[in-house]
Request: fold
Amino acid sequence: MQQALPYINLPFTTTSNGGATTTAVEVPKLVAENAVVIFARSGCCMCHVVKLLLHGHGVNPTIFDIDEQNEASVTGELSKIIGIGEAKAAGRPQFPAVFVGGKLFGGLEEVMAAHISGELVPMLRKARALWL
Amino acid sequence: MNFASTQFVPSRRMGICEPLPQIGMWSDYKENNYLDTSTPAILEVDSRFDNQQLRRLAQNREAARKCRLRKKAYVQQLENSKLRLMQLEQELERARQQGLYVGGGLDTGQLGYSRTTNPGIATFEMAYGHWVEEQNKKTADLRNALCSDITDLELSSFVDDGMNHYFDLFLMKETAAKADVFYLMSGMWETSAEHFLSWIGGFRPSELLKVLEPHLGPLTEKQSLELSNLKQSCQQAEDALSQGLERLHQILSETVADGLLGEGNYLPQINAALEKLKAMVRFVGQADHLRKETLLQISRNLNNRQAAQGLLALGEYFQRLRVLSSFWTSRPRESS
Reply:
């Protein structure tokens, strides 16, 4: 199985990891402190696509690896952040899940749609993910 | 001479003439040895020899002539059948390209298996056949509408209708992807030229923009800029998806190859690979989503007339590709 490399978000030094010990607890902090966070299953190719799209805009997202051990707890944490109502409506959060400016932005589809419509850049700028 | 007693009975097997009472084989007539076999019996009586011999010669000639005519007719029939067969094959190919005919000819092989045994795919093929027919109709209607004096409101409903028709296709494909994503990816449902130009199971959005651009009529500066931005965004999105797909190839290959030359039981690897393959369905879905978003974004930047022209250009473009495929399939081959 491929090991996910930890990505370092430029202004912050938090790294992502897939270990079973501390992860779930760190989730809210991660979401709050990083402009763009992607939660994705290990080796997910869709996550790779989102990452590339964001790289294209000069954004280096924090990537959180989800594996079998931490999936349940992470999902729980994310549902809390999203809000119980929304989480219930969606079932469970779909992965990859992209958080921008501390809020759930959506999955690859939402990022793609925003990218095409031109709404992505202003949104990234607002979340201080971009400096230009 | 009275030939009543020597009626020729055409045999059921063409080419063999059986004149009664003499029974001759096809080869006998060709080699003309009939005379030789019958002469010994007749030599004894001179006067009768002449008559009999003459009569038999005449009958022989007659038989041979009729045989030649029958052979000619037979060959003619064969030639006609051959032409008819070629014609039918062409029609079949055309119908198959349009997905109207489920189950193919000689070249479906294993693909024919998946088509005829997968009800989801069979459903899609039929639905797609209808979709193409509808698309051609809508394109023709749109052409007439643009030539006529219709209101902008009416034109906008044409545009909405045209766009929604493409979106319908994406929905159909979504269902088909769940039935058999590789069928979609293989381009079996598209014509050959369309498939040649395709990208992840359908048209490449950035290419579409290039095709459309010259046919939108005069654009404002803002529109030109928006279109230029859109082209770039499309390209970036396509690249990202393509690279993601390459990544999937890599991961799949690694998963399958994990533990080669090992103990023997590789079922875990197969199961792991199965999970990876499911990502294919999502890729096709994302590609179609990109197509949809691109179409929506174009229409946002254009007025109704421009959008209608764009849709018409699109419809015609795909029509031409389908015709190209048809011509390609039915082109005369060199005989080997």
About this structure: Chain A has a mean pLDDT of 79. The helical segments of chain A are 23-33, 45-56, 71-82, 84-90, 108-117, 120-126. The longest strand of chain A covers residues 36-41. The beta strands of chain A are 36-41, 62-66, 97-100, 103-106.
